[in-house]
Design a protein that fits this description.
Length: 293
């Protein structure tokens, strides 16, 4: 069911995107469907970013931020749009809905095949002329940006992973036990589909744990992926009030990264994009511009 190869990108319909009219003055955002290497249609939005002193940004000069949301998110969720607006101060922004989320096709594999969705979004960003790509992922998206960077294939020039797990199958907190119920039980998947608008692949409920993604061996874990990212700059961000993953997760990732990674522990911050304060997003933007080359 899974794959460790990045995919091609094919556009279907492109159209102006005016979800946040007046949010930027660098050009007209565009919305399109991308097609992944395994044939899934991914709903994606390109925002050219804020103009600088009235001059539109140039893709050849400014970076593009490709934002990978957390589980049950989508390109249209308010917190994802807030993240996009913050990063638009620093360059262009690509947001997209992972498979099984929002208007995208397919079903969620909770971090396995989602690496192909990110690969399609990164390829689209490069097709638009951006020489520097920064991937920023939150929670599930944080694990996906790590795996994507580890697999290479014209990946990112800088990687930011926020609120990501270090290892699979973690059930040590109540929110993660609820998430496992949501993913592995038929009744949970119904709640995901109709209550959270997230379509989850039924094979995720297949025992034993090694077949949780419908394949054996399981995908490369985040902590296994991190050493393969070097020398690409890597930033790991985690809140000390994260209810999903305690601080041993970011510390494991940072230890695996060694000297090429940075770790920020954010006081009082909870989990993922919903909890990321505005000031943190701007610090991430500053870090990315400085590190992406």
């Amino acid at each position: 069911m899974g794959t460790d190869r990045a995919g091609h990108v094919a556009r279907s319909t492109s159209r102006p995107y005016s979800e946040t009219p007046g949010a930027t003055n660098g050009g007209t955002p565009l919305r399109t469907f991308l097609r992944t290497a395994d044939g899934v249609r991914i709903d994606s939005v390109y925002d050219p970013g804020n103009a600088v002193r009235g001059i539109p940004r140039e893709p050849s000069r400014d970076p593009v931020f490709v934002v990978a949301h957390g589980f049950t998110g989508s390109a249209d969720r308010p917190h994802v749009r807030r993240v996009a607006r913050a990063f638009a101060r620093y360059g262009a922004v690509v947001t997209f809905s992972f498979r099984g989320h929002g208007a995208s096709g397919g079903r969620s594999t909770v971090g396995d095949r989602e690496v192909l969705d990110l690969a399609a979004a990164v390829a689209w960003a490069r097709e638009r002329g951006h020489a520097r790509v920064v991937t920023v992922g939150f929670s599930m998206g944080g694990s996906v940006v790590l795996r994507h960077a580890a697999l290479g294939d014209a990946g990112a020039d800088a990687v930011v992973s926020v609120s990501a797990p270090a290892r699979w199958f973690y059930r040590g907190t109540a929110p993660m036990r609820r998430l496992h119920w949501l993913v592995t039980r038929p009744s949970g998947r119904l709640v995901g589909r109709y209550g959270l608008r997230t379509r989850i692949h039924r094979r995720l409920g297949a025992p034993p744990a090694r077949r949780a993604w419908g394949r054996d061996p399981v995908p490369l874990s985040p902590v296994e992926a991190v050493p393969r990212i070097a020398p690409t700059p890597l930033l790991i961000v985690h809140g000390d009030s994260d209810a999903y993953f305690p601080l041993d997760h970011p510390r494991m990732l940072a230890a695996a990264a060694g000297e090429h990674g940075e770790l920020w522990i954010e006081p009082g911050m909870g989990h993922a994009e919903n909890a990321a304060p505005e000031g943190l997003l701007h610090r991430i933007g500053d870090w990315a511009v400085a590190r992406a080359g």
